[in-house]
């Protein structure tokens, strides 16, 4: 499944150029994509033979050897950094391609809403939660006895957390899938991938451990997003002393209009504009509409 925000008459060349090289808006998204790609390419230059009794036989790059997460290396050998480093490693070209496309499409609106630093911390937190949740299901007996030695890599847990944030903040925004060719709301899309992950785990299909990580990242993202909104709501409900002596009737009317909840049509129009031209193309008024819509 390759999601993209629906847009009419989209100029693909302009979209790629603006989203990937315009650092004025989704700064963290672009840096995360760059770091993931660079780390993936470096892995081709540092290959080692892996003993058959330790990892699956074959060759593995040194970055994965010392950066991939497994319950045994992280907690029994004390290499806690693996909870973070595994998020920047990928198994193959298809793995990194899918993850970076998903980060590219879903990440900017969440970063715009949360801010650069909070978005980065959110991203890393969801990745850590993904690894821990997968290990928790291993302890509960969902996987084979060797699960604690199997390495886990990928940014999927973090990206599933970002999808969860989109489903909470902008549930009615539309997502068009290339395969299968269906149009869904972000909420419906999140529920669909959640259902797939649950089915893979329950029926022990291929990559059940990885899907457990996806599930953990999505749960963590959902809970963390609700906590962020709850904190913002508490902050907004605190009484503030505002001087109104110099306000004109026009200012008061404009202030009242800006505080109303935007309609679903307004939000969808803005999301399609992001799809065509990137987050940096939004006006300050449009950014405010997205912020108010996410507090609904």
TrEMBL record:
Domain DUF6576 residues, every copy: 260-295
GO CC terms: membrane
SUPFAM superfamilies: Rhomboid-like (SSF144091)
Residues annotated as domain Peptidase S54 rhomboid: 78-230
InterPro entries: DUF6576 (IPR046483), Peptidase_S54_rhomboid_dom (IPR022764), Rhomboid-like_sf (IPR035952), Rhomboid_protease_S54 (IPR050925)
Principal place of residence: membrane
Keyword Glycoprotein: no
Protein's name in the database: Uncharacterized protein
Source organism of this protein record: Akkermansia muciniphila
Highest classification ranks of the organism: Bacteria, Pseudomonadati, Verrucomicrobiota, Verrucomicrobiia, Verrucomicrobiales
